[in-house]
């Protein structure tokens, strides 16, 4: 983790407004940290500093968002009135749905958010509008996926396949469940609703078929804790 010095709260010019930031530093294909870091890392640090960040939290990654302890630490330390600043939106979450959940959680805690590359600032009216547009698009995407999946299931039933709430999934349904799961725009419970089966059935099908996948929570608060 890389941190800039924290201002002394006893200083008369100290402001209670604070800013935090996170970015992913580069690692080699073998998983070892590169030394020195590439120019992009220094570019991000400089940009975050210019944006007023006095603490920079760094997670090293190799193309995976599954383990980000510094982001978790950052989210735990934020307090009402703080502003979270990221270099780019993908530093906050793995998917649009995940990012929206994170932003909702920040807003409920009275925490602002800025993304430098997308010029989003939820502390401004324009930034809040962009956030609501993102949320609407994410909702539309989920509805569209559900509509298409239901249409496919209806066509399958018309060809003589059984409907209802089966205890097991067909091969086509397993493929659909895995595709929706890996897109990470729907929770396991939502995927189960789309396919007409329980959440447990989805988990069992994912565990039994194809390659292993990372575990996933089904509620927004758990999604926040998984942003690592």
Automatic annotation (TrEMBL):
Gene Ontology terms describing biological process: DNA integration
Keyword DNA-binding listed: yes
One Pfam family of this chain: HTH_7
Keywords: DNA integration, DNA recombination, DNA-binding
Domain named Resolvase/invertase-type recombinase catalytic: residues: 21-160
Gene this protein is translated from: hin_2
Family affiliation: Belongs to the site-specific recombinase resolvase family.
InterPro entries in the cross-refs: Homeodomain-like_sf, Recombinase_CS, Resolv_N, Resolvase-like_N_sf, Resolvase_HTH_dom, SSR_resolvase
One MF term in the entry's GO annotations: DNA binding
Higher taxonomy: Bacteria, Bacillati, Actinomycetota, Actinomycetes, Micrococcales
Superkingdom of source: Bacteria
Record protein name field: DNA-invertase hin
